[in-house]
Design goal:
Blueprint (H helix, E strand, L loop, with lengths): L1 H20 L29 H27 L3 H28 L18 H8 L3 H29 L3 H20 L4
Helix pairs in contact: 1-2, 2-3, 2-4, 2-5, 3-6, 5-6
Pfam family, one: DUF305
Protein name: DUF305 domain-containing protein
Organism: Saccharothrix lopnurensis
């Protein structure tokens, strides 16, 4: 059900971004159309990003941001040193990804809309989930953190797959592949004792 929710949100964002970036039909002309370019473009592209690209960035940013409070808490408080080290690496990685994702929007001349902030969507660690985990200590805190981080990493990979399958921007696709690989690495190290 939550995956359906994220897909519906992604589709609605694609429609909104597509509508915002739609250009009026050109006036009829008697001259021949220009020759095709070697760079594929879509008529609904916005700032060089396809609607899928733009929708993915608008969702990936809050998804990564939602994990930062928990990653910071785990780094500081985890009883398991391996979990604390993983959280430290993931925190640095997420902050780098956020810089890059905002850079994609800037390059395209787009603004981050923040439409999904604080939503309870797959891959997002909600404020309530974070606060519930933060009240725990010791092994209980570590166990709940593992559950939340696993869900976050898995769902962010699922959302990234949509971009990898339908996105068109080469730079964003490379960033998304890196993000997917880092999440797979984090998952492989997220042991459950």
């Amino acid at each position: 059900m939550r995956r359906l929710s994220v897909l519906l949100s992604l589709v609605s964002l694609v429609l909104v971004v597509g509508a915002c970036g739609a250009e009026p039909a050109p006036a009829p002309t008697t001259t021949a159309p220009p020759p095709p370019t070697t760079t594929p473009t879509t008529p609904s592209a916005v700032g060089g990003l396809s609607p899928t690209d733009a929708a993915y960035v608008q969702l990936a940013i809050p998804q990564a941001e939602s994990a930062l409070p928990l990653l910071d808490a785990v780094r500081a408080r985890a009883q398991d040193p391996a979990l604390a080290e993983l959280a430290a690496r993931a925190g640095v990685g997420h902050r780098g990804e956020l810089t890059d994702l905002h850079g994609v929007l800037t390059r395209a001349g787009l603004t981050y809309l923040g439409e999904h902030e604080a939503h309870d969507m797959p891959g997002m660690i909600t404020r309530d989930e974070y606060q519930a985990a933060d009240r725990l200590t010791g092994a209980e805190f570590d166990a709940e953190a593992r559950v939340l981080l696993r869900k976050h990493f898995e769902e962010s990979v699922a959302v990234a797959r949509s971009e990898l399958e339908a996105g068109t921007d080469a730079g964003l696709l490379a960033l998304t592949r890196d993000l997917t690989e880092s999440r797979a690495d984090y998952l492989s190290k997220l042991s459950i004792p």
